[in-house]
Amino acid sequence: MSKFAHEWLQTTGMNTLRPEVTIRHERYASFAVQQTAVPEHPTLRSHRIAIGLYDRDGAGRIVRRRRVELDIDGEWTSVRELEGERVADLVLVNDDDLTFAKIRFDERSVQTLTDDLSAVEDPLTVRSKISRSRWVSCASGAAATSGPAMRGRRRTSSSTTREMPGARYVCRWATVRMAASTSSADCSLLA
C-alpha cells in the first residue's frame, strides 16, 4: 500500500497547519510550518501547500507579495525560502487551497484580518478561505485571538456563547461589506 493511500485513505481526522516564526529587525529569522492532529486521530500527513505573504499596498488593499510552494511532512517543516524575508501583514498557510487541512494564523495576521479583512484582494478565494478558517477556529474553541487583536472587543447582543472547558468563547458572525459579499468570524476569548 502506498504512503498516500495509508495517510489519506486509511485514516481519519483533519490536520491543522500554522506558521511559527521568529522575527528579528522586521524580518523572518526563522519560518516553519507546524502540523498537528487531534489525539483521537493522530496521523500527521504529507501535504503540498503554498504559503502566501500579503501586505498592504499604497491604495489600502492587502495583496500577495510572495508565494512559496512546498511539501511538508511530519510535525515541523522549515521554510528556508522565507528566512530573511520582510515580515508580512498576513501569512496565509495553504494559500491557493492545495491541501485538505485547517489553518491557523499568527498574531500579526490576526490583527490584520481583524482590522482590514475587506481590503484583502481576490474576494472569491482568499477572503472566503480566511473567513472559513476563522469561523472553524472560533467554533472549535481554538481561535488564536486572545492577544492584542481582540483587546477592547465587547460582547454584543448578537453574540452566540459557546462554552468550552476552561474558557468561554464568544463568536459573533459579522457580515463584512466588500466588493464580493462574504462574512467573517469575529472571535474573542473572554476571561
In brief, what are we looking at here?
The protein has two domains: 1-104, Immunoglobulin-like (Sandwich); 113-191, no CATH class.
Highest CATH level, the class of the largest domain? Mainly Beta
What string, H for helix and E for strand, traces the elements in order? HEEEEEEEHHEEE
Binned strand content: 35-45%
Q: How many strand elements?
A: 10
**Low-confidence parts lasting 5 or more residues at pLDDT below 50?**
144-191
CATH fold category name of the largest domain = Immunoglobulin-like
What is the number of helical segments per DSSP (H or I, 4+ residues)? 3
Strand numbers in spatial order across the main sheet: 5-2-1-7
CATH architecture descriptor name of the largest domain: Sandwich
Structural class: alpha+beta
* Average of per-residue pLDDT values: 76
Write a structural description.
With 191 residues, the protein is α+β, with helices and mostly antiparallel strands. The chain has 2 domains: 1-104, Immunoglobulin-like (Sandwich), CATH 2.60.40; 113-191, no CATH class. The chain contains 3 helices and 10 strands. It has helices at residues 3-9, 107-116, 123-139; strands spanning 16-24, 27-36, 47-56, 62-72, 76-78, 90-93, 102-103, 160-164, 167-176, 182-190. It has a 4-stranded mixed β-sheet with strand order 5-2-1-7, covered by helices on one side. A hairpin with a 2-residue loop joins β1 and β2 (27-36). The longest helix is centred in the last third of the chain and has 17 residues, at 123-139. The relative contact order is 0.14.
